[in-house]
Amino acid sequence: MVGLKPPEVPPTAAVKFVSAGMAGCIADLCTFPLDTAKVRLQIQGEVKIPRTISSVEYRGVLGTLSTVVRTEGARSLYSGLAAGLQRQMSFASIRIGLSDSVKQLYTTKGTENTGLAARLLAGCTTGAVAVACAQPTDVVKVRFQASGAPSDSSRRYNGTVDAYRTIAREEGIRGLW
How many CA atoms lie within 13 A of 36 on its CB side? Predict the structure, then answer.
């Protein structure tokens, strides 16, 4: 292994695409409880979440995390993780992984440096496409995060794929967006 140099060939678009999605998934695994707390704080007062304690009120991020763990269990902090990882694989892969390829579309041929306009257009393009593609995964993720830890008898969805199907069936395909 001594004397090996890093490859001089840049990674392909496919490698960037997969690497960006995997990096997003690793980040999501670390921050998912904070996202769950954010969702709970955002919907507090709007939706009745089934709980063992009827008058639970969330106060701040740390208070929300401790209340969820105390009333629903630690696993509840990761409710919707499968959809969250699906979101990262689609969103981060498109937004970050395809950024360089899209920049080339907006760069004049023969130009060495990418200008500010090309970088802004590439960011807007990949961001818009990523949001459009990843929105159904975000809808399902938030539904799971907002639902708390229901008992098996009151569970609305029997998994992530069932959630996509149920939302599409009950609310139409537009319900996923």
Answer: 30
